[in-house]
Each structure stands twice: as C-alpha cells, then as structure tokens.
Specification:
The complex is a heterotrimer of chains A (253), B (465) and C (220).
Chain A lengths: L6 E5 L3 H5 L2 H13 L2 E4 L9 H5 L3 H14 L7 E3 L2 H10 L9 H11 L1 E3 H5 L14 E5 L3 H6 L3 H9 L4 E4 L14 H4 L1 H16 L5 E4 L2 H13 L6 E3 H8 L7
Parallel strand pairs in A: 1-2, 1-3, 3-4, 5-6, 5-7, 7-8
Chain B lengths: L4 H9 L2 H21 L3 H20 L1 H15 L2 E5 L2 H14 L4 E4 L3 H5 L2 H7 L3 E4 L2 H8 L16 H12 L8 H18 L2 E4 L3 E3 L4 E6 L3 H7 L3 E7 L3 E2 L5 H13 L6 E5 L13 E7 L3 H6 L14 H5 L1 H6 L10 H12 L1 H4 L11 H5 L6 H15 L1 H19 L1 H9 L2 H5 L4 H6 L12 H13 L4
Parallel strand pairs in B: 1-10, 2-3, 2-4, 4-7, 5-8, 7-10
Antiparallel strand pairs in B: 5-6, 6-9
Helix pairs in contact in B: 2-12, 3-12, 16-19, 20-21
Chain C lengths: L1 H12 L22 H14 L3 E5 L4 H11 L4 E4 L4 H13 L4 E4 L4 H10 L3 E5 L2 E3 L4 E4 L15 E7 L3 E2 L2 H6 L11 E5 L4 E2 L7 E2 L6 E7 L1
The chains are: A alpha/beta (253), B alpha/beta (465), C alpha/beta (220).
C-alpha cells in the first residue's frame, strides 16, 4: 500500500479543531490516508472568517478569505474540511465576498468547486468491507444546521454510519432544530442559546446513546460543555474520530 | 417605560405556559406543512416558480401598480395611495366620516396592525371590531397578535375560556372549543349586520384584471367585505401580481406553508362593488396602496427580496428562537425571521437593529420560505448595515474584530496567541460570562493541530512543509 | 393623494434592477392525465376530506334527493336565487316536499332582506359554474340571480354542480376560465369546505362565520 503514491488533498483544520480538538484533525488525516489520500496541511492557515462575517463585520472576513483562498490555491487539489460549517463558508460564501467578475471572485469560485466536507469526501472511498469486527454501539447523530442546509451532507453522514453493521444510529427528537451554538449567537443571545442548548442536550440524552456524534466541532463543543456543566460526562465525539475507532486505526501516529 | 428586547426575551423564556403553548403550536404547524409538501419534486418546482413570480413582480412594481390602479378604476374600485401609515389612517378616516361611520368591522390585515389603525379610529370615536376569531380573542384581551396567521397562538383553550368568562361574562364548558367558537360567531354576527364599514387586507392583487384576492377559512373575510355598504382594502404595494395565471402557484404556496392546507375554505376574488343590477355586495370599494417604507426597500439591490414575502408565516414556524420566545417578545407587528428583516427596514436600523441578534443563522427559515427568500443572508446583510450605520456604538465590537483580524492574518502571531489561548479571553466583555452561565469552558489542547501536523511532517520528511 | 401617488411611483422607479432567472409563466404539471371518472372520484375524495358532504345524483332523481335532504335535516326556510331553470325546479321540489317548507327568493336588496337572511333562513341552494378536483373546490360566480350572501349567511349551503364542469386543477381553470378576464365578474368565490377555524389551540372547529354545512349535489 505504501508504495502507491497517494493523491494529495489540502486539509483545512479549522480554528476550533486546531485549538481545542486537534485529535479530530489528526483523525481526518488518518481517514484520508485510509481512503488513499495524503493530506497537505499549509501551516499558514488560521480561520475561515465566519465569526466576523456572521456578526456583520464583512471587511475582516474578506481579508481572511482572500488569504485563505491564496493559501489553498497553490495546487489545484481538493480542499477537505472536517466541519460542514467552515466548508459552507468557503464553498458558498467566499464567492459572494468579492466583486463579481473580479479575479478574486474567480479564484474563490475555483476553490469553492473543489471544497468538500470531510465525511462527504470519503463516504464512497472508505473500505467498508475492511472494517474490523467491532462491538455493537448505539450512537446519536447530531446533524448540524450547516450539514443539513448549507452543505447538504447530513444524509451522507447517516449513510456512512448506516454502513457500519455494529453501529445503531439514533436521532434526538426535533433533530432538525439548531443546537443553540450559532457561533457568536451563544454569546450575544445567550439566554435563548442556553435554552436551545438545554433542549438539544435533553433530547440527545433521551436517545440513551453511548456517544453523540457530529461532523461539526462547534456543535459538539456547545453540547459537550453544557453536559459537563450539568455534571454529566461528555459523550461527544467528532465523526472523524468515531470512524477512526471503527476502522481500527490508532488516534495520532 | 420601554422594556428592552433582551428583557422581553428573558421574560418569555421564564414563562412555562408560553413556552408550552408555542412549542405545541409550532410543532403542529410544521408537521402540517411537511405533509402538504410531501412531494419533494413538487415543492422544488412550486417554490422556484413562486420565487420567479414574486421577483418579477417586485422588479415591475411601478408598471404593475399603475395597471392595477387603472383596472380597478375601470371596475369601479376607488384607488388611494398612502406614503405612510398616518396617511393611510387619514384616508380611512375620511371615508368613514363621509359615510358617518360609527362601527367598523375588520377582516384580517397585518398591514392595518402595522399602521395601528384600531387605535387611530378609536381616537376618533370609531369602534373597530376584529372579526377573525384569533384577532377577536386578542383584541378582547387588549393584546397584539403574536403570529401573523394565528393571532392567538400564544393562548390555550383554558386561557381563552377564562377570558370569555371575565370579559364577556359568558361561561363555556371546560375545553369546549366548539362552544367558544359559537360564542364568537353569535357576537360577531350582530356586528356584521350593524357595521358601517368593512376593512380587509389583500393577499394578492391582480394587475391586469383589477382583482383583489383574499384567502380565509372562517368566512369573516367574506362577511366583512360583503355586508357593510363600504369596503376598504389596505394593501402593501408589494402584493401586486401580474395576472391570474400566477394565482394558483402562489395560492398553493401560501396556504400550504401557512396551515398545511391545500386550499383554504374560501378564496375570494373581488373585482368591483355591487353592480347596478346586483342585490348585495358593498356599494363602495376602496383600495389603499400603502408604501410605508416598501418603495425604499425596493431600491436596495441586496434587500429587495424582502418584498417577495407572501406573509405565510412559515419562517417563524420553523425558527427555533421564535418557538421559544413567542411573537410578543419581538415587540413589532411582524415577528420571527421576516419581522427581524422587515422591522428594522421599516422603522430604522438604529431603533430595531437589536432584533437581528436573536438569530443563530441556522437556516431553517430560508429552507421553508415558499418564495425562496434567502432570509439568513438578509439578516447577515442587515447586520453589516447596522455595523456601518452606527460607528459610535459598534466601535467596541469593531475593535474586537480588528484584534481578531490581526491575530488571524498573521500566522506567526496566530500560533503565538493560540498557544496562550489568549484569543478567547481577548474577546472581553460578556464573552466568557455569557458562556459559562450554562457551560464549562473548553480547554485548549496541549498541542494544537498546527503543532501536531508540524511534528508529523517532520517525522515523515525530515523537513518542514 | 396625487402627491402620494407620484412620490411612491418615483421612489419605485429608482429601483436597482437585478438579473433574474428566466421567468416561467404558469407551468402547471397537469398531474396525471385523469379521465372524467377519476376526476370526479378525486373531487369527491377531497370534498369529503374537508368535511363537505357529497350526493351523487342525476337529472332524474336530484329533486327528490333535495326534497328528502330538506326533510331529513328539518330545513324549512330556503333561500333561493332567481331566473334559472334549475333553481325553479329546486324550488318546486322543496315546496312540494312539505307544507312547512317555505322559499325566500333573493329578489330584493340585501339591506331589505338582511334580517330574514341572518335570522330566518335555514339553508340555501346555489349553482356552481365549475369545480376543481385536485383540491375539492367549487367555483361560484355570484350575480344578480344568485347574490353573494347566498353562499355565506345561511348555516347550511347546498351546491348543485354538473359533473362535466369538474376540472382537474386550478391552473387549468385559470388558463381557460368560465368568465371573461376582460369583464371580470364583481365577485368569484372558491369554496372548498364548510367555514372553519383552528385559532383556538390549533383545534379544528366548524361553522365559524360562514355555513357550518356544505353539501354538494353532483349531477351526472
């Protein structure tokens, strides 16, 4: 296997994963490798710019976007993002940040076309028949708003989990409802955010699943830290990390 | 004393009855709508068509409104133009005074709520009674509607039973909705008989035939616009459509989105007052075309799509924030996502911009919109406008994002800062407190992904990438 | 007012035009092509779903059916229009059914008949010009013979409809309407069920302000 040169893809780690959940990033690398890809990780990457953008501060977002586009345009290879939210920013919003017909807009479109959410990218490439025997496990899948509506990859997440015979997938009641994170929403509109988070956590706990999975670290952070605040264990796990376990890979190299 | 939006939110969240009423109602309405649009392909085709019809109409407003006016006049409908609510109210008053009207009965019209017609008429000693059951209930309790389709959605049967007892002195058996409706029917029937003027809204106005289209289930709309000798219809200028061929698509989208019905009990097409040989119908029909900020919105390329709205209520039914705080918390005629977009544009970003904060940009509203208005994008755009509009207020947050930009623009600085996790604390002010009220703080990893990837590439290649 | 009109139009004309995707005029997917039988069946199904009652009759028996209906429901005061042969026949059948049954012909202005309409009339019968199967909808065009209030004030409303006038869908109807777009009738009303409301805790209740019962006699 090692002798075959792997195809290269860019990995955009995302700032949350970089700072708080690097394991998910490493697991993304491992999964890409399993699927036949070598992850290229430019060290100069920082953030996709969504936080200021959503808050109405377009100018800093545009500057960061330009930088990010340049960074990932050295090679014409897919850009893989282990977050539907950040992937959505790059794929759907970057092209709208620049003057139509401008060079930047063209570059943004070019990058958008080869930007993929991680699970969506590897869904049809994972060697499912090589999955080692694993203990049955019941999981709850949190389909993030970005996965559901912006990137349209929620069904792919379901599909991938359903292909694992030992995995039973459950969903919280009102699964289509936002978990309450919404980035700066959780700070600026903290009262409503808190209630939404409480409801989401309650519904997830009610599934009696052993683990709560999602492809978005923001949601997992929101849910996990709230459960911990309530004195419960944090059962949240990024889909990438879960799949690494299910495919018998080791976390980190 | 004005209660702030954030206080109203907290009050709503602390009200278990409100929470329960809205939860039940929104779940109910969402499920009904889902059933009505169960055919995915049909939904996609219908909303594309609906979006195209509405966008085209908005782009041709001067032409269509002129045509509508001409056709209405040909049909015998009198047409008035009102630049703002005050003008519209005065036009109504003028017509009322000409007819020595003492009692006005209203069908259902959010536009009349927008211009605060009832209060205005009351100031001039003209009684204005709501005839839509939900509106009647809300009026009885001296409240404003909390939803644009189901005005009394914030009340449950028990609360309404109690209201009828205390305000009307009429007792009905516990939980007997039919009895309550019966009470409303008999009281309002008398009013239909007596009213001097009937006032309605307009769901759509057909330009090439001069026809007003009204949808309803109760029959009060038809009674209000047929029984009194004078009918006044108030319409936002954006409600015009080019021809009757556009009606089926829009009707389907409206009723299915609003209540999950494939069609309402009644769809009423009014093209003229009572003709010479006819025996009933109003002798005078007036159409008031209301601007009140809409023309200004049409000038704005980014915000123009606000006017595509057909007032179905689907956005608020799907909004997780609206579901939890209810309609009154927004403090405006139009609540929920469309309210957050419309109200700052009609009343000013400075006064009403705060409404824009109560949104997590989850996108459920845009997904449900039957005319494909990109509601989240409009909220984002308005947040941008708000930021540039009021430099003084926003300088603090602008500064915060300026710092954020410096950190994220310079990879070396970023690496330095993330190592000390300073960027999180640098956001100052409410930041950690609002988070830590209900969540623990996430712990920065010992080694960031940057660091681990660096180590990884070194061990692989013996060099730095 | 001219000032307002000019000001508003001037503001609207300052609009920024956006490039719009091609506007498709009235594409109605004509569902499946339904034959008359299927159309009728769908129409009846939808009516019943919406709590309207249906009687399938023919030119021979509809008058008896109407008379029987009046007797069964003890409806004695009937509001009826004028100058139409079907209405004449209906009137005859009703009065023949029982000496208790009286007709109120809508031959005077609403203002004069008001009290009778609101307080005396038990039921009315009108004709429908067309119907829409996909939603179970009747199309009424009130006029000097059958004024608007006929289908609105009485608590029970009977509609006489010819089966051959049932169309598949709404788009079909507006593409080829039984009225003139150049000379619009003063009022066209589409009726799909008895009057109802769900304004109280989303609980469906019938007979809000309009008729509580809607009965459709489909004439084959």
């Amino acid at each position: 296997m090692d002798s075959l040169p792997k195809k290269q893809v860019y990995l955009f780690g995302t700032c949350l994963i970089d700072m708080f959940y690097p394991q998910a990033g490493l697991d993304a690398v491992a999964l890409l490798e399993l699927s036949g890809y070598e992850a290229v990780y430019p060290q100069a990457q920082t953030c996709c710019g969504q936080p200021p953008y959503n808050s109405g501060f377009k100018s800093p977002a545009v500057k960061i976007a330009k930088q990010t586009i340049d960074l990932f345009s050295t090679q014409d290879i897919p850009l893989i993002v282990p977050s539907a939210s950040c992937a959505g920013m790059i794929k759907h919003h970057y092209p709208t940040l620049f003057q139509p017909q401008s060079l930047e807009a063209k570059q943004a479109k070019q990058l958008a076309q080869r930007t993929f959410e991680l699970i969506d990218f590897i869904a049809d490439k994972l060697p499912y028949n090589q999955q080692p025997l694993r203990q049955p496990i019941k999981v709850a899948l949190h389909e993030s708003c970005s996965a559901l509506r912006e990137m349209n990859v929620a069904s792919t997440w379901r599909h991938v989990l359903n292909k694992l015979d030992n995995v039973e997938v459950t969903y919280p009641e009102n699964k289509q409802e936002c978990c309450g994170f919404g980035g700066t929403f959780s700070i600026k509109s903290d009262a409503v955010s808190a209630v939404m988070t409480q409801d989401k956590c309650k519904n997830l706990i009610n599934t009696t699943a052993k683990q709560i999975l999602s492809g978005d670290s923001g949601c997992l952070m929101n849910i996990g830290e709230h459960l911990k605040f309530e004195g419960k264990k944090d059962p949240c796990l990024h889909l990438a990390s879960f799949l690494v376990e299910q495919f018998g890979l080791s976390h980190g190299h | 004393m004005v209660i702030s939006f954030s206080t109203r939110i907290k009050q709503a969240l602390a009200d278990p009855q409100l929470r329960s009423n809205f939860r039940g109602a929104m779940d109910f309405l969402r499920n009904k709508r889902k059933l009505a649009f169960s055919d995915e392909n049909e939904w996609e085709a219908l909303k594309k068509q609906g979006a195209a019809i509405r966008q085209d109409a908005i782009q041709r407003l001067p032409e269509l409104l002129t045509q509508l006016e001409q056709q209405c006049l040909n049909n015998g409908i009198q047409v008035h133009w009102a630049e703002d609510g005050q003008e519209a109210n005065h036009i109504m008053l003028g017509i009322a005074q000409q007819n020595q009207a003492r009692l006005v009965i209203k069908g259902k019209s959010m536009a009349t709520e927008e211009i605060e017609l009832n209060d205005f008429l009351a100031q001039h000693n003209i009684e204005c009674i709501e005839s839509d059951m939900g509106e009647y209930i809300v009026q009885l309790d001296n409240e404003k509607p909390s939803h644009i389709i189901m005005p009394a959605i914030h009340k449950n049967t028990a609360q309404i039973t109690e209201l009828f007892e205390s305000k009307l002195g009429i007792s009905t058996p516990e939980g007997d909705v039919d009895a309550l409706i019966g009470v409303g029917r008999s009281i309002l029937r008398k009013k239909f008989e007596q009213a001097d003027i009937g006032i309605s809204g307009v769901n759509f106005a057909i330009a090439d035939t001069g026809t007003l289209c009204l949808v309803e289930n109760e029959g009060n709309g038809r009674l209000s616009t047929t029984a009194p000798p004078v009918h006044i219809a108030l319409m936002g200028i954006e409600k015009v459509i080019p021809n009757i061929k556009a009606l089926p698509t829009l009707q389907k989208l409206l009723t299915r989105s609003a209540t999950g019905q494939h069609i309402t009990s009644y769809l009423n097409l009014i093209s003229s007052p009572r003709k010479p040989n006819e025996l009933d119908g109003p002798k005078e029909v007036h159409l008031i075309l209301l601007d009140n900020g809409r023309a200004k919105i049409s000038q704005d390329q980014q915000l123009q799509s606000t006017l595509s709205c057909i007032r179905c209520g689907a956005c608020m039914n799907h909004c997780p924030v609206y579901t939890r705080i209810g309609g009154h918390a927004y403090g405006s005629t139009y609540p929920g996502p469309i309210g957050q977009i419309l109200t700052p544009q009609l009343k000013g970003l400075e006064q009403e911009g705060e409404l824009l904060d109560a949104c997590s940009l989850n996108g459920a509203c845009g997904e449900a919109c039957p005319v494909e208005i990109d509601l989240p994008e409009l909220i984002r755009t308005l947040r941008q406008r708000r930021q540039t509009a009021d430099h003084k207020r926003w300088s603090l947050e602008a500064f915060v994002w300026f710092i954020w930009l410096q950190i994220h623009k310079h990879p070396h600085l970023y690496l330095l800062v993330t190592r000390f996790a300073a960027s999180f604390r640098a956001l100052k002010l409410k930041t950690p407190a609002n988070w830590t009220k209900t969540r623990t703080m996430p712990k920065p990893a010992k080694l960031s992904l940057h660091q681990q990837m660096q180590k990884l590439s070194k061990s692989k290649n013996g060099g730095v990438k | 007012m001219n000032k307002a009109r000019n000001a508003i139009l001037a503001r609207l004309k300052k609009q920024t035009k956006i490039n719009l995707p091609q506007y498709i005029q009235s594409t109605s997917k004509p569902s499946q092509h339904l034959n008359t039988e299927q159309t009728s069946a769908l129409f009846i199904e939808k009516l019943k779903e919406n709590r309207a009652e249906v009687r399938c009759v023919n030119s021979e028996n509809w008058q008896d059916a109407l008379a029987q209906f009046a007797l069964d429901r003890k409806l004695n005061t009937w509001l009826i229009g004028k100058n139409l042969s079907e209405l004449e026949k209906a009137g005859i059948a009703l009065t023949a059914a029982s000496p208790d049954i009286t007709l109120v012909q809508y031959t005077q202005e609403y203002e004069i008949l008001k009290k009778t309409l609101f307080h005396k009339v038990d039921a009315s019968i009108t004709l429908a010009k067309a119907a829409i199967a996909e939603t179970g909808t009747l199309v009424l065009i009130p006029d000097q013979n059958e004024p608007r209030m006929m289908s609105l004030i009485p608590p029970v409303h009977i509609v006489l409809l010819k089966e051959c006038d049932i169309l598949n869908n709404f788009q079909q109807l507006v593409n080829n309407p039984p009225w003139s777009n150049q000379k619009m009738p003063s009022n066209i009303v589409f009726i799909s069920s008895p009057s109802k409301t769900a304004d109280i805790q989303q609980t469906l209740a019938y007979g809000a302000h309009g008729p509580k019962s809607l009965i459709v006699f489909i004439l084959s």
